[in-house]
């Protein structure tokens, strides 16, 4: 299995390390031709505006949309979730996004870097024990359309992990924990 990791900016190396631990060959994606032959793609956390502008500059936006239309799975974590969303609140005007998931996302919903936090989430799709989630300048999902399944929410009901078909999005960073269950879940989508 070959899983691509968008390697324009952000926490791509951390995802690559988890994939390698699971016996999967990670492929760094920087240009459209790097998408060829991949079974799935992870869009990491980082800075969503920078990532979107770099994807636009290198001609990746439409190839990424075509990748999703081909039925291959894409998982966006944090900034990657912002790029996948159809609508972004508090985004930079003209911020390039992919618009693939029928969700509305608010950038930096919890505040600045110092407001980052960790919490345990009940995620039935992953089973027990609860998943320890790391939120760093994280977005939240403000609207979920019919056909989008909420996989995890905070105690106040705010959605922080969703799935729409073979598209997966998390507001937190599973790659920064020792728990590989979310990566395994994504690999099942790709398999």
Produce a short descriptive summary:
The chain has 191 residues and is an alpha/beta fold. It has helices at residues 12-21, 48-57, 61-69, 79-84, 181-190, and strands spanning 2-6, 25-29, 40-43, 74-77, 85-89, 101-106, 117-121, 131-135, 140-144, 149-153, 159-164, 167-170.
Strand content: 25-35%
**Counting H and I runs of at least 4 residues, what is the number of helices?**
5
* Oligomer class: single chain
Strand elements, count: 12
Query: What is the CATH topology?
Result: Rossmann fold
So, CATH architecture?
Answer: 3-Layer(aba) Sandwich
- Tell me the strand order in the biggest sheet: 2-1-3-4-12-11-10
Mean pLDDT: 93
Order of helices and strands: EHEEHHEHEEEEEEEEH
Radius of gyration: 15 Å
CATH class assignment: Alpha Beta
Class from secondary-structure proportions: alpha/beta
How far apart lie the N and C ends?
Answer: 8 Å
Largest sheet: 7 strands, mixed
Give a description of the structure.
The chain contains five helices and twelve strands. It has 191 residues and is α/β, with parallel strands linked by helices. It has one domain: Rossmann fold, CATH 3.40.50.880. A seven-stranded mixed sheet has the order 2-1-3-4-12-11-10. Strand 10 (149-153) and strand 11 (159-164) form a beta hairpin. The longest helix is centred in the first third of the chain and has 10 residues, at 12-21. The model has no long low-confidence stretch (mean pLDDT 93).
């Amino acid at each position: 299995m070959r899983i691509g990791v968008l390697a324009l900016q952000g926490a791509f190396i951390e995802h690559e390390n988890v994939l390698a631990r699971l016996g999967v060959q990670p492929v760094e994606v920087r240009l459209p031709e790097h998408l060829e032959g991949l079974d799935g793609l992870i869009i990491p956390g980082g800075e969503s505006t920078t990532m979107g502008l770099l994807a636009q500059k290198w001609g990746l936006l439409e190839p990424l949309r075509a990748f999703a239309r081909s039925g291959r799975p894409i998982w966006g974590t944090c900034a990657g979730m912002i790029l996948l969303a159809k609508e972004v609140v508090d985004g930079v005007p003209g911020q390039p996004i992919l618009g693939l998931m029928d969700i509305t996302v608010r950038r930096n919903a919890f505040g600045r870097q110092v407001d980052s936090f960790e919490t345990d989430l009940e995620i039935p799709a992953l089973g027990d024990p609860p998943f320890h989630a790391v939120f760093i300048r994280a977005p939240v999902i403000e609207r979920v359309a019919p056909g989008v399944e909420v996989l995890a929410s905070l105690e106040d009901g705010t959605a922080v992990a969703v799935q729409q078909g073979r598209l997966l999005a998390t507001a937190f960073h599973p790659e920064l924990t020792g728990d590989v269950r979310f990566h395994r879940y994504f690999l099942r989508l790709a398999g």
